[in-house]
Structure formats: C-alpha cells, structure tokens
Amino acid sequence: MTPIQNISIPEACHESWLQMTPVTQGRHCQQCCKTVTDFTVMSNQEIINYLSTSHDVCGRFGQEQLGSLNNRLDIENLQPNRWRRWIMLVGLLGQTMVYKAVAQTKAPQMVTQQTKPASNNIILGKVAAPDTSKKVRVSGQITDENHRPLSDVTVRIKGSNTSVLTTADGKFVLFGVKVADVLNVSYIGFITQDITLNPATKQTHNIVMKEDSHLMGEVIVTNRPSFTKRTWNKIKHIF
User: Fold this and answer.
1) What InterPro entries does the record point to (predicted)?
2) pTM reported for the whole predicted model
3) Is 145 part of a structural domain of the chain?
4) Residue 173: which residues within 8 A CB-CB, separation 6 or more?
5) pLDDT of residue 172
6) How many domains does the chain have?
C-alpha cells in the first residue's frame, strides 16, 4: 500500500447534497451518475484506509476536516524511518555518557542560601475555592442560527461515555455533571462545540450551532513516492 501524501478537491461540485438520493456510505448524484461518499462521518484513519484502496472517488468533506486530515498526513510523512531512530538513539546515549563523565569531574559548588525577612502582611486562614467535585443538573436547548430547534444532537460529558440526545424541541437534560466538566456538543453538518461550565452561574444553556461549510467533488489522492524513488531524485539533483 503506497502512503498517501495529500488529499484535495481541486474543483468543487455545487450540486445540492440534500437533493441527492441517499445510498450506502453517501448519496447518489443524478447529474454525474456517481456516488458521493460522505467522509464527514468518518475518522481521519477511516478516510485514509478508504482512499488507500479506492480510486475515482467523489467525496464530501468539512472544510476544517480536510485541513486536519492533511496535517496528519504531513506529520506521518515527516516521521523518521526506523534506522534513523536507531542512529538518533545511539547518538543520544553517547551524549549522555559524555555528560555524566564531565559532570563527575566537576568540583561541587557551594550554595549559599539567604533567608528572606518575614513579611508583616501575613494572612492566615482557610483558602476558599469552588467545589469542582459537586455534581449538578445541566439542561438547555440547542438551535441553529435561524433559531430552529435541532433534534438528536449529541451532548456528551467530554472524556466520558455519558451522553444524551436532544428531543424534538432541541432540549436536553444531563444529571450528575461535575462543575469542572466540559460538555461536547456534536451534530452532523454542524461545527462541534465545547461548553465550559461555570460553577458560579445557573447550569441552563442555550446553545446556537453553526453549520459547517463543506467541500464536495472529485477527490484527488497524491501518493508519496517510494524511498528508492526519493533517493534517486536526490542523487539526480546533485548532478
């Protein structure tokens, strides 16, 4: 499997996603007679696996999602090969041994500690702090930018499996939430939000979700050249 270097959609499709016919993994476009794969519901690794084995793909991405995906590919492609890691490790061990040898030959330094005069402005007492372990009831309503209620929005306590879905009128209630928790609000087609709770305020939240801009069209996958080809290209540039 050739590693992927970059994923892009050079020419965006302006057909209406909602007017396409729902099919497995996406929707069918009547204009080009192709299935448009919905990558907005996949993780970065799922997308990489899919595009590594598929060709001539039309897809739908979130603008932020496509950027995040290519950032991950950049990081993976910059990772050193295994033999380079061994060289770096051996070099680091050598530097550590030299450092220890030099440190043992150095004479111990005398440390003089000065006692600061005691301040007269000293206050004694119990430190008051908010009780972040206290559990509360959190409720609210989730709407879009046109103030229309959104149903089936996932409201989750970040870092846990505790979650609820909003009702038909966009309302939700979560019990047993700590005031130090963060609420993660997610819904397909909208930008995910993190809501930080404030212990000093009432735990009722009116949340407005913004639609996530999408990019749809033919997906171009640029594969990373093999190690042999990259080495040969470097040799050619020398001459």
Assistant:
1) CarboxyPept-like_regulatory
2) 0.45
3) yes
4) 137, 138, 139, 164
5) 94
6) 2
